[in-house]
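Weekly modeling sync, notes
Attendees: S.R. (lead), two postdocs, one rotation student

Agenda item 3: backlog of single-chain predictions. S.R. asked that every request posted to the team notebook include the full sequence so nobody has to chase files. The rotation student volunteered to paste the first one in as an example of the format we agreed on. Action items at the bottom.

Example entry:
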Amino acid sequence: MSLREEDRALIVAMELEKADRTFAEKDVLFEGKLWSNLAGRLYYALFHAVSALLINDGHEVGTHKGAVIRFHQYYVKTGIFSNEDGAFYSQMQSMRERADYNCYYDVTETEIVERLKPTSQLIEKIKEYIGKK
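Predicted structure, as returned to the notebook:
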């Protein structure tokens, strides 16, 4: 991606801010027991953080599937992020798609509770990586 450095830095900051705002929406959705919507918010928070990561390093974001593929290609396969991080991001994308597009699939409270901390941790790992560059 061909951007001036100041433009790249601004977009990365905006993506990270969007990740934080999106993750913060979890509180209202949790209170309302809107588990499927919450799954979407957790995924989108990760998507914005991964987008910031890709943009920061000059990679295209592309589609949601493309962002997952690029995250694995540039960060998991190279050992920057763990296989567990890559698997978690992929699982969150799959969960969001199932929740959004399949009327017979409902996300449970247990599934959400299990994913809150790992989502936050992966976002923080991404921020830490970006901050070191």
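Discussion: group reviewed the output briefly. Residues 38 and 110 are 12 Å apart (CA to CA).
Action items: rotation student to repeat for the remaining queue; S.R. to check formatting next week.
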